[in-house]
Amino acid sequence: MPRILKKGLRWVASETNLQDVPRKPGVYALYYYGKRRYIGKSKNLQRRIRQHFNDPNNPFTEISWYQTVPKARHTLESDLIDRDFEGLWNILKGRRGKR
Predict the structure, then answer these.
(1) What is the pLDDT of residue 12?
(2) Is the distance from CB of 11 to CB of 17 less than 8 angstroms?
(3) Where on the phi/psi map is residue 34: left (φ > 0), alpha (ψ -120 to 50), or beta?
(4) Is the distance from CB of 59 to CB of 53 less than 8 angstroms?
(5) Which residue from 4, 6, 80 is spatially nearest to 36, judged by alpha carbons?
(6) What is the model's pTM?
């Protein structure tokens, strides 16, 4: 069974683009001027990314998302965090243990 069912890579963070994000489970990445800064998972990608979009304390300029089967979310999120561990807001905010 494929881990990633559908993906949207490096979209500009805009209301129009958010409408095209699926309301399905998956993993997403938030970028701030080209640098990946946050990686998260959600049961509903569109709703969760929209929450970030409306939060002035979490600025981002682009998004990527990966629609997955529900059981693959955690593994894919961990793989993406491990790939870009340094400088992620996940780390700075204490959401992942120190390495």
Answers:
(1) 92
(2) yes
(3) left
(4) no
(5) 80
(6) 0.81
